[in-house]
Amino acid sequence: MSSVTQPSQLLSSILQPLDPEERVTILDLGAALPETLAFYSEFRVKLYFADLFVDLPLTVAEEGPGYREQFAALLQLPADVRFDVCLFWDLFNFLDDAAIRALLEVLQPHLHPGTRVHAFGARNRKLRAGGERYGICARDTLSVRYRTQALPGYRPLPQSTLQDLMTDFQFDRSVLLADGRLELLMHFRG
């Protein structure tokens, strides 16, 4: 799996307020990469990693658990945890509308007004297969590890579709990247 670094204009908006003295609770829905752990080591953070990409594609069978039950089982979040920051990476591009709604329903009790959110969307549906593994090298720099095989179920979502699905979130900024991805910054309205 090859790796590159990539500047991020929006990640610093989420991470800049981090203070070595303030406790921050972060949910990262990707892999716990070494550079991310090294970055957070200088702060007082409580990290929750749930690499949902390893469980793709999520499906619902007639007799099986629904999306909501699957996400609750995969995340196993303590009832009293509230996240200050959520990193979705490009997970939304692998979930259908019902799965996105279910994920947000499971997360909603763990968010507070002002929870900051970072994600990647797509400018259009022709974007190449995603599912990269993202890490944080610095407040404004990501590491991107490209997979040797595409993950199943990739269907890039444009920002307008995400906004329609994420009605409890305010989309604050978006930046179009050279490869057609959109870097998105949001916050939970509560």
TrEMBL record:
Superkingdom as given in the UniProt entry: Bacteria
Full protein name: SAM-dependent methyltransferase
